[in-house]
Amino acid sequence: MPPHTRLSAQELSVNFADTQVLDQLSVSVPDGAVTAIVGPNACGKSTLLRSLARLQQASAGQVILDGKAIAAQNSKSVARRLAILPQSPLAPEGLSVRDLVLRGRTPHQSAWRQYSAKDATAVATAIAATGLEGLEDRSLHTLSGGQRQRAWIAMALAQETQLVLLDEPTTYLDLPHQIELLDLVRRLNRDTGRTVAMVLHDINLAARYCDHVIALRGGTVHSEGPPSSVITETMMGEVFNLPCTIIADPNHGTPHVIPS
């Protein structure tokens, strides 16, 4: 039985010039779960995530959000339900943590409704949830890589959406900061029930932190499901061309890939 989902792609194709990046791909993001999108370089992972957020136009097929084609929905309405943190986001020089997080409130504001008490509460809650208290007035450029990524996630949380998409959130972070960030994502999912989908490169971290894994190969879905059913020696060979042995992680019981 397919997972219950508010967000899905139906026979989605995306072309860049003469190159087909996604090829009639159909996939669902399970509600209330943490999903990892994995696969080799140039297989369409980031393109899929951007397409799910309507940042990438489809050549064919469609993305469905809450039962309707996302392309036909009002932009502000979509932004109140779905947040995306792109890969390597950029901020103006000197922007403070508080000002960055406040930008997450933009979908809830208008010419008639500017900064409100509700916005202040949402910003304070997001800063507290990501452990950034005391750093609110610091410039982003003075923070460590891990702190900076937490600030960007706080901005997405301040948007107060139930769907959060993260494109390679651990890029450029050392292993301790990767663990710290993924612990945060998992905790936010467990504490708030938010649905999270993220592109990850590290298969073992995907197995440890995610409930659902989508493995892409050549712009199509090779396999999807719980880590124990997707992260197999067969999948690693067919998707990554990597001979390996899969063992149970001694601390977490999740699949652990050991290259041959």
TrEMBL record:
<dbReference type="GO" id="GO:0005886">
    <property type="term" value="C:plasma membrane"/>
</dbReference>
<dbReference type="Pfam" id="PF00005">
    <property type="entry name" value="ABC_tran"/>
</dbReference>
<dbReference type="InterPro" id="IPR003439">
    <property type="entry name" value="ABC_transporter-like_ATP-bd"/>
</dbReference>
<dbReference type="GO" id="GO:0006826">
    <property type="term" value="P:iron ion transport"/>
</dbReference>
<keyword id="KW-0408">Iron</keyword>
<dbReference type="InterPro" id="IPR051535">
    <property type="entry name" value="Siderophore_ABC-ATPase"/>
</dbReference>
<keyword id="KW-0406">Ion transport</keyword>
<dbReference type="GO" id="GO:0005524">
    <property type="term" value="F:ATP binding"/>
</dbReference>
<feature type="domain" description="ABC transporter">
    <location>
        <begin position="7"/>
        <end position="243"/>
    </location>
</feature>
<dbReference type="GO" id="GO:0016887">
    <property type="term" value="F:ATP hydrolysis activity"/>
</dbReference>
<protein>
    <submittedName>
        <fullName>Putative siderophore transport system ATP-binding protein YusV</fullName>
    </submittedName>
</protein>
<keyword id="KW-0472">Membrane</keyword>
<keyword id="KW-0067">ATP-binding</keyword>
<dbReference type="InterPro" id="IPR027417">
    <property type="entry name" value="P-loop_NTPase"/>
</dbReference>
<dbReference type="InterPro" id="IPR003593">
    <property type="entry name" value="AAA+_ATPase"/>
</dbReference>
<dbReference type="InterPro" id="IPR017871">
    <property type="entry name" value="ABC_transporter-like_CS"/>
</dbReference>
<keyword id="KW-0410">Iron transport</keyword>
<comment type="similarity">
    <text>Belongs to the ABC transporter superfamily.</text>
</comment>
<keyword id="KW-1003">Cell membrane</keyword>
<keyword id="KW-0547">Nucleotide-binding</keyword>
<keyword id="KW-0813">Transport</keyword>
